[in-house]
Amino acid sequence: MEFEEKTVQRTEIYQGPIFKVVTDQVELPQGKGLAQRDLIFHNGAVAVIALTPEDRMILVKQYRKAIEATSYEIPAGKLELGENADPKAAALRELEEETGYRGRLELVYDFYSAIGFCNEKIKLYSASYLTKVDNPRPQDEDETLEIVEVTLEEARELLASGDICDAKTIMALQYWEAKMNK
Hints:
Distance between the termini: 41 Å
CATH class of the largest domain: Alpha Beta
Number of domains: 2
Shape: elongated
Radius of gyration: 19 Å
Helix content: 10-25%
CATH architecture of the largest domain: Alpha-Beta Complex
CATH topology of the largest domain: Nucleoside Triphosphate Pyrophosphohydrolase
Strand order of the largest sheet: 7-4-9-8
Strand content: 35-45%
Oligomer: single chain
Largest sheet: 4 strands, mixed
Number of strands: 10
């Protein structure tokens, strides 16, 4: 069975510093006609599961305008221009900027965040051997963050209350639980 949708025409709607929005007119497979696809092209992102030696997860509390609410999330950020070649370095940078920690990283997963309309791929790393940095890189000027260290039970409570509501953090919690159950 054929599945591919062939682009007939692409119209660029918006090009910003983080993503590009386009509308594609596509030819559907098996002669089913034409359809419109609104798409977001994103440079990618990194995220870090940071567990302290005391078995506490480092989360970042921040306001997210898209959902008009505050959430608790694992440290993460977009790949800056030129960082696609070394996403691990980008993850280390984000970990230090957002939490003031450094560590050794291991790739856990890379996944698409919203495959129905966006090509953002997130590389999810696990950090070990965390050490506090004396003079960490400064946080991004447009971010207001609070660092929180939680136990697995506290993280489960944040998930149950809806304070943890993003896919990458939920995935990180599942990874942590699986690791604890080994």
